[in-house]
């Protein structure tokens, strides 16, 4: 399996000015790597979840002026789309790679999912210390579990439940200069370890379609 690595050249994509020039670089530099990474990832996640999982690569089609500050692949159980479902994400900002179990604002059953996660709060807090929480998939700022106490976690989940645009993403981030990003096998193993650890929460919050 020829697994991709990520280089400074990839991260420098987000320094390119203008929507179309940056999108062209994303299509040329990053999306082929997402395809090479995402296809085996979807296979592994199909085995892990026991359901067919499908790869989606962000197209940023809604953007008309501002270039994207990040880009990602998503794996979900719906081949038509991922935004309305809990899904797994791997992507890049200019300074790190992220891997999330993602619950974004377009979920139709957000309140129910938030309640299920609130019921699992103790288990969320017991994840490894290098795991982090983001409350907005469009922004870089995320808090590691070391930086959060129980009150912080509860507030995050309540915000996700009660605020229309509220989101909840949990997973890990890898700095752009971490040597791990230069080893495709180790990176893939790390991503799958992360998603395997998060899979119980995914299972608790996913309404599978038959």
Explain briefly what this protein structure is.
The chain is α+β, with helices and mostly antiparallel strands and 210 residues long. It contains six helices and seven strands; from the N terminus they run ααββββααββαβα.
Walkthrough of the structure:
With 210 residues, this protein is of the alpha+beta class. It has one domain (8-205): Protein of unknown function DUF1054 (BirA Bifunctional Protein, domain 2, 2-Layer Sandwich), CATH 3.30.930.20. The chain is built from six helices and seven strands; from the N terminus they run ααββββααββαβα. A seven-stranded antiparallel β-sheet has the order 1-2-3-4-7-5-6. The longest helix has 31 residues, at 19-49.
Using the 3D structure, state the CATH architecture: 2-Layer Sandwich
Radius of gyration: 16 Å
The CATH homologous superfamily is named Protein of unknown function DUF1054
Largest sheet: 7 strands, antiparallel
- Multimerization status: single chain
Percent of sequence in beta strands: 15-25%
**Assigned CATH class:** Alpha Beta
Count the domains: 1
- N- to C-terminal separation? 31 Å
Query: Mean of the pLDDT scores?
Result: 94
In terms of per-residue confidence, which ranges show pLDDT below 50 for 5 or more consecutive residues? none
Strand order across the largest sheet = 1-2-3-4-7-5-6
